[in-house]
Design a protein that fits this description.
Elements (H helix, E strand, L loop, with lengths): L5 H21 L31 E2 L3 E4 L2 H12 L4 H15 L9 E8 L4 E7 L22 H5 L11 H12 L4 H14 L1 E2 L2 H9 L1 H4 L3 H7 L12 E2 L2 H13 L2 H5 L1 H11 L10 H5 L5 E2 L2 E5 L2 E5 L6 H13 L11 H21 L10 H5 L1 H9 L33 E8 L5 E9 L67 E5 L2 E7 L6 H15 L3 H6 L3 E4 L2 E4 L6 H9 L4 E3 L7 E5 L6 E5 L6 E4 L1
Parallel strand pairs: 15-16
Antiparallel strand pairs: 1-18, 2-10, 2-19, 3-4, 3-11, 4-7, 5-6, 8-9, 9-12, 10-11, 12-13, 13-17, 14-15, 17-18
Helix pairs in contact: 2-3, 3-6, 6-10, 14-15, 14-18
Length: 619
């Protein structure tokens, strides 16, 4: 068996030996079940060994699940203070900026999916980053017209920074749908940034891995390195006074200083004066930014409604298409951990990803057949063209209704995975989910001097090539300038660059119109498969949510089949290889967090990914 990712060893050490002292530091969590302790269920005999044991957490009234216990606790604090799920989500998000700076923060962007129980309505907020107006299709090309190397060149420094959108999205959600003042939502993050917290194993590991890249930026060294020039280590106390001051400004004045004031000035200076690959962002780019409301995408799977994020994310549409393709093949194989189950899932993923690669991009810049891609009839026609039980053969994008033959080219493109996902449900049945990112671990590598937060490198989510090998324009090519049209529910905007395509997929599953499950994950291009696989395991195989998240991953991407330990049984691997799978066995980078809402009792069941450091908390 190949060497496994060091994260297995790292998080195995984390388990309760490291998590329990942290929980003692945090204080009581509130009741997790009627007995006051996590309910235990017998392990599924097919389940792979989890990287750490996540307790079964249930709750009666409200729950928050985030990638770090500090964040989950901040969200729970808001619920107990009279806030709703939106308030809890926002407070947890700000805390993640403090304790998980490698994955998200106000220097990045993300997508919010909010289900409003009283209205019976689901809305989404698009906080994706934008290209500066001056960006063009040559942004990541060398003089000879070939793409720059992705790592570390393309991802590092000012040129890769998109106009941040997360703060605008959080503020809009708070204003339209929250209850508590923004200052209350920021209070836990401010306290934690000022007092400090022990560096977690995951943060320490990534600082060590990225130290050469991060050391190029003085403000980053000042915030995250020791006096001897080495990065902070596990257990070191990390205080972030600059970030606390930034949050205090936002608590008083909202997002205006960030997009139009002194913080905006400092962001632009950091980008344009970057010691590595300076960029062209302007104050106008920041002042023009808005996080619009978008219409969510919807589809069905085995009698359930699947609701997700629409463009510029490909996540919602591709999750739905993948599931609808699977549904065309009848009942699922008897056992989830089988060559038949894996092969069927890979076939559906290959078809859905081929369509994603050709068609989906920022709908304000590119016209493409979204309704056609979501049509169950298209899934049936698409499925008929493939021998599902035969060996893998190359697949091409389909032709959904509304597509123009030969107009768009196709180019495979990888997304990095330093992303986070968090969810909240309140006592009234409101549901809030968000996936946000700064793209690479620590984004561009740059902390804004005097402000304490990392800037993203999300522009690398664009295809570096503007055309494919046949000279056809690639939908997800880089574009700056003005928006051609606007498909949002907000008032149209006159300025703003293109938003890079994403795979982020905050997803809501409804049964008879009522929320049943909310789920999402980090993981770059694999997010779509992580989410679809978890939906499949819960709806088709009846697994409880935590068991489904614990279950070893199977993904197929870029011509390779990736198996987590648990799948690597000789007979199973041999069968997949006989079907044309190029097998790689390794840990995968999900961070699935979700909540299952029992349709009979309304009881909340949390699920947190054992591959990361999160924990469900409820009351």
């Amino acid at each position: 068996m190949p060497n496994l990712h060091p994260l297995r060893t790292l998080l195995a050490r984390t388990a309760w030996g490291l998590l329990l002292p942290l929980l003692l530091l945090l204080g009581p969590l509130g009741p997790l079940d009627p007995a006051g302790a996590p309910a235990q269920t017998q392990a599924d005999p097919e389940r792979g060994a989890a990287l750490r044991q996540v307790p079964r957490v249930t709750a009666e009234r409200g729950m928050v699940v985030a990638a770090n216990p500090h964040a989950s606790r901040a969200g729970l604090e808001m619920l107990r203070a009279g806030g709703n799920a939106v308030d809890a989500l926002i407070a947890a998000h700000f805390v993640l900026n403090v304790v998980e700076p490698q994955s998200s923060g106000i220097g990045g962007g993300g997508f919010l999916l909010l289900h409003l129980a009283e209205r019976g309505e689901t809305v989404t907020v698009d906080g994706r980053e934008e290209a500066p107006a001056a960006a063009n299709s040559a942004l990541f090309l060398r003089p000879d017209g070939t793409p720059e190397p992705f790592y570390p060149d393309r991802i590092t420094g000012g040129r890769a920074v998109g106009v941040p959108g997360l703060l605008s999205a959080l503020e809009k959600a708070s204003r339209l749908y929250g209850r508590l003042p923004l200052a209350d939502l920021l209070a836990p993050a401010i306290r934690l940034a000022e007092a400090g917290f022990p560096v977690s194993p995951r943060l320490a590991m990534l600082l060590e891995q990225q130290q050469e890249r991060l050391a190029q930026f003085p403000a980053t060294r000042a915030a995250f390195f020791r006096a001897d020039g080495t990065p902070l280590r596990e257990g070191d106390l990390l205080r972030q006074p600059d970030l606390a001051a930034t949050f205090r400004t936002i608590a008083r004045e909202g997002s205006i200083p960030f997009y139009r004031g002194d913080i905006a000035r400092d962001i632009v200076a950091a980008v344009r004066q970057a010691p590595v690959r300076p960029g062209g962002m302007t104050r106008t780019d920041l002042s023009a930014y808005e996080a619009p409301l978008r219409a969510p995408v919807r589809g069905t799977y085995r009698g359930h409604t699947i609701v997700g994020m629409g463009p510029p994310s490909s996540g919602g549409a591709t999750v739905i298409e993948l599931l609808q393709l699977l549904e065309t093949q009848g009942p699922p194989p008897h056992r989830p951990l089988s060559a038949e189950s894996a092969h069927r899932f890979a076939q559906a993923a290959r078809l859905a990803y081929a369509d994603r690669g050709r068609y989906i991009a920022d709908a304000d810049f590119v016209t493409f057949p979204l309704a056609g891609l979501l049509d169950p009839g298209y899934a049936r026609r698409r499925a008929e063209a493939l021998d599902w039980v035969g060996p893998l053969v190359p697949v091409e994008p389909g032709l959904p209704a509304g597509a123009q033959t030969g107009r768009l080219g196709t180019a495979p493109h990888r997304e990095s995975s330093s992303t986070t996902h968090l969810v909240a449900v309140d006592a009234e049945g409101n549901v809030a989910a968000a996936t946000s990112s700064i793209e690479q671990a620590f984004g561009s590598g740059m902390v804004v001097p005097g402000r304490g937060f990392f800037l993203n490198n999300e522009l690398t989510d664009f295809s570096p090539r503007p055309v494919d090998g046949k000279g056809r324009p690639i939908a997800n090519r880089v574009e700056g300038g003005k928006r051609r049209r606007h498909t949002a529910l907000d008032i149209p905007r006159s300025l703003g660059g293109k938003r890079p395509r994403s795979s982020m997929a905050p997803t809501l599953v409804l049964r008879e119109g009522r929320p049943l499950m909310v789920i999402g994950s980090p993981g770059g291009s694999r997010i779509i498969q992580y989410v679809a696989w978890t939906v499949l395991l819960t709806l088709d195989y009846g697994m409880d949510l935590q068991a489904a998240i614990d279950f070893p991953h199977f993904t197929h991407l870029f011509g390779k089949t990736f198996l987590e330990p648990g799948w690597d049984r000789p007979a199973l691997v041999q069968r997949l290889e006989a079907l044309g799978h190029d097998i790689v066995v390794r840990e995968q980078n999900s961070g699935l967090h979700g909540i299952w809402i029992d349709p009979a009792t309304g009881r909340l069941h949390g699920g947190a990914d054992p591959r990361r450091e999160g924990l469900p908390m409820g009351y």
